[in-house]
Amino acid sequence: xxxxxxxxxxxxxxxxxxxxxxxxxxxxxxxxxxxxxxxxxxxxxxxxxxxxxxxxxxxxxxxxxxxxxxxxxxxxxxxxxxxxxxxxxxxxxxxxxxxxxxxxx
Length: 105
Ligand SMILES: [Zn+2]
Ligand SMILES: [Zn+2]
Ligand SMILES: [Zn+2]
Fold this sequence. Notes:
Radius of gyration: 19 Å
CATH architecture of the largest domain: Ribbon
Shape: elongated
Order of helices and strands: EEEEHEEEE
Helix content: under 10%
Structural class: mainly beta
Largest sheet: 2 strands, antiparallel
Bound molecules: zinc ion
Strand content: 15-25%
CATH class of the largest domain: Mainly Beta
CATH superfamily of the largest domain: Cysteine Rich Protein
CATH topology of the largest domain: Cysteine Rich Protein
Number of domains: 2
């Protein structure tokens, strides 16, 4: 197969992270190294901590509690009220609204 204008044996063209051959799977390049889709997402993709789906370019998102969130996913773990721009409390890594911050789990 041809990739990057170089020729690889199929079994030599492998993901730089998990070392599994990429063969005809989708792959992504990062700093000159190929990564399988799964590892690329894991290492370079931004995943929403609320819904666990990827945050696509163009999606509105915010960063809080050390994670990234779709703005629509950044809600209180109890009542689902949107917490964007509100006073934020958190328990473990879950965002909570003021009213539920001290509620027993
Ligand atoms: Zn991989
Ligand atoms: Zn989300
Ligand atoms: Zn709440």
